[in-house]
Amino acid sequence: MALNDSIRYHKGALFIDALAVESIVSETATPVYIYSLGRVLENYRRLAAAFAPLNAKLHYSVKANGNLGIVSALINAGAGFDCVSGGEILRALTAGAAAADIVFAGVGKTEAEIAYALRQGVGWLNVENPGELQHIQAAAEASGREAVQVALRFNPQVAAKTEPAIATGHGAAKFGMTAAFVQRLLARQAAFPRVKIAGIHLHIGSQLGDIAATRSAIKKALELIRPHPHIKTINIGGGFPVAYQPGEKLPSLRGFARALEPLLRGYRVLLEPGRCIVADAGILVATVLYVKEQAERLFYIVDASMTELLRPALYGAYHEIVPLRQTEARRARAQVVGPVCESTDVLARERLLPRLQAGDRIAILTAGAYGMAMASNYNARPRPAEILVRGNRWWLGRRREAWADLLQYEEPLGMKKTLSGPELC
Ligand code: LLP
């Protein structure tokens, strides 16, 4: 089952930790994201334990779910952070992260973002373009930093078995630099006296169960840095997979760690896990608005859509859907669709579900990663609230947007003041 110890049925009602989901939702509107902080921390600890023999430092990938409550719980658990924009750095710092525990990654960092990262004192930059080194050198001079620690992101040109849309380590991907580029930069280190190339970074894909491809990419990275013994850090990225389908078999985190340990001995290891920390800790709860049967198809039109959870529309991703109350009702194949004016606004196709009626509530499972993080305001839909649960307590992590919130950045006849440029903080 895509259910787990934290999100499960108890006496016929769906619970999240010690609370009936219905009891929370009766006080909030739907759609709403609900996260189990206990599950987030358990996932974090399981990964940390699996990689403890490698002495790895975990940098949670904020892009998966940047909710401040989740980030601050992970700070307390000892996590560092992987941020891919000035906005994510600000988010992590606002939650209380130490700048030194932040890795700043991203294929297109602007000069303004680099300068901001250096002013704040982020611990590492993962470099993906030769031109970035010039910007980092200039920003280091401007901010008086003597030595900025960077890792070069290596594109090992391996094809990993994952969804094509989230594979990043093949030659045609925009991510990272090929071996020839990395070698050239390593040969030119002296041209960037304030930049200390101290690590190599790679990330070959997300939702990646392919241990063989990961090993082969790491081997290539190690070969590349062998002539440079001062490079002692390897950041192996994120990508650990989670089960979206009931019964899906995946390599265990321990299995991953054990397979990688012999390669990584003697190196300082960094990880950037996102999905495997938060995915199965979160659900998206929706209400059935209408039931429509036509052209031999059964449609459940619900109040959640591709604007709350884009993954099915964007990647054809599967998310398990369960009713909040277990029922003996006859099951039928149905399309679960949202109200958005797009044919791809389908959360589940031909899914066998118990018969539902208008007003019934459903939970879309394994929605904690890349759910709210990718939510949009398309069709002028306010983004939903996020609720955090800890044991038998819950609180609002982020309030639901109001219609008026959607209008705050514009005026019908243009803005009175012209903003001078991107404001980073
Ligand atoms: N490090 C780097 C350099 C990355 O590009 C990513 C994800 C991560 C770490 C974290 O990967 P994770 O542990 O979460 O797999 N929106 C897509 C996933 C995009 C992943 C982007 N990069 C989805 O919904 O499946």
Structure write-up:
By secondary structure, the protein is of the alpha/beta class. It has 2 domains: 7-35 and 279-407, Lyase, Ornithine Decarboxylase, Chain A, domain 1, CATH 2.40.37.10; 37-274, Alpha-Beta Barrel (TIM Barrel). It is 25% helix and 25% strand. The protein contains 11 helices and 20 strands. The strands form 3 sheets. Strands 4, 13, 14, 15, 16, 17, 18, 19 and 20 form a 9-stranded mixed β-sheet that branches. Strands 5-6-7-8-9-10-11-12 form an 8-stranded parallel beta barrel, surrounded by 4 helices. The protein has a 3-stranded antiparallel β-sheet with strand order 1-2-3. The radius of gyration is 23 Å and the shape is globular. Ligand LLP is lined by residues 61, 64, 82, 105, 166, 168, 203, 206-207, 237-240, 272-276, 311, 369-370.
Query: What's the total number of strands?
Result: 20
**Uncertain spans:** none
The CATH superfamily of the largest domain is identified as: Alanine racemase
CATH topology of the largest domain: TIM Barrel
Number of helical regions: 11
Question: Termini distance?
Answer: 43 Å
Bound molecules: ligand LLP
The percent range for strand residues is: 15-25%
The CATH first-level class of the largest domain comes to Alpha Beta
Looking at the overall shape, the CATH architecture of the largest domain is Alpha-Beta Barrel
**What is the gyration radius calculated from CA atoms?**
23 Å
